[in-house]
Amino acid sequence: MTPRSTEVTDVIVVGGGAAGLGLAHRLTETGAATVTVIEPPDGPLRPAERTWCYWGEGADGLDEVVGASWSRLRLHGADGRPVTVDPAPFSYRMVRSTDFERLVHARLARSDGGRLLRATVGSVTGVPGGAEVRCTLPGGWSLTLRARRVFDSRPLRALPPARTQLLQHFRGWFVRTRSARFDPAVADLMDFRVPQPVHGLAFGYVLPLAPDRALVEYTEFSRDALTTEAYESALGHYCRDVLGLGALTVERAEQGIIPMTDARFPRRSGAAVFRIGAAGGATRPATGYTFAAMQRQSRAVATALRDGHGTVLPAPHGRRALAMDAILLRALDTGRIDGPGFFTGLFRRVPAERLLRFLDGATSLREEWGIGLRTPVRPMLRTAAELPFLPRRSRPAARNGDDHR
């Protein structure tokens, strides 16, 4: 194909998922830089509609795209007893990918320095003064773009070596029931009243959208994903036998896999090429939550560029948080702790606001020490003692990944 002339911009964002859209949103919001977002053209490379959830506090610039939120959170223990908490000042919020895309695409269209390009990226390489992105347009034409900085959110082909790697894998139904079955003010984060696998843990997840509509999911933390048929069977059991929803209509389904690993993710692949999103380690290893960390990084990058401080891409999670997550993952993987009992105990014994800050990596050392004393101390200490001596091994990256939370 005949190559087209090279184009130049301040920032290129590769990928239009939560990480890429979030960074473009903040860059155009602050006017920090001219930005080109490269998304795959229509076809198999474009992901299906997804939902991203996070807990937020106050106005965060995403109010336009928060499709639903919940002021109370609930967890059901394996014994069936519920615990309902009020996480104020936090609320649990849902963003649909199509709504986020519309917001960011409209902002790019209005911005003097913004641009959306539909193309397939072939390579990203460093060049003097920045980086170069070579891509192919839908008509087959090749195009080369250059920028002072490139932020690449494409999934990794292989995960970095890790001591422990589990998968958070799930399938969800958007259901409509014949009568009111849901409380729209309460989100069920973990419902352990489902059969538990031999290895790992499983739970239901319910986000009510109306008295007769909800996103209902079956989720596992384990080493291997299930077949679609197995997810469907588990969802049917959960909706019918646990929730007692009666007759329902499945309006849409979504499915995803999120690696839960203590691997070390490099945030750079070149002097001017930065890894963002799950590929840059934004996924919290012990929970799978990703969206909030992406947004924190995006705000930090946009602020640094606006203020002329150069590129600042902070670590998505602090060292203490990652160390604690590594211990928890290993303890879960070895079966030393009971997963449902562990998470249920935390929600019953730790104030909700403090627990959410802990899961978001925003607690002090003193608060973390207090939370640690409310966990199974001996198994956790044994796991902490052995971790430094365990080898890190490679494993292929999970496919069908979706930064759902």
UniProtKB/TrEMBL annotation:
It holds the Pfam family Lycopene_cycl. This is FAD-binding protein. Gene3D superfamilies: FAD/NAD(P)-binding domain. It comes from the Bacteria. It comes from Streptomyces coelicoflavus. InterPro entries: FAD/NAD-bd_sf.
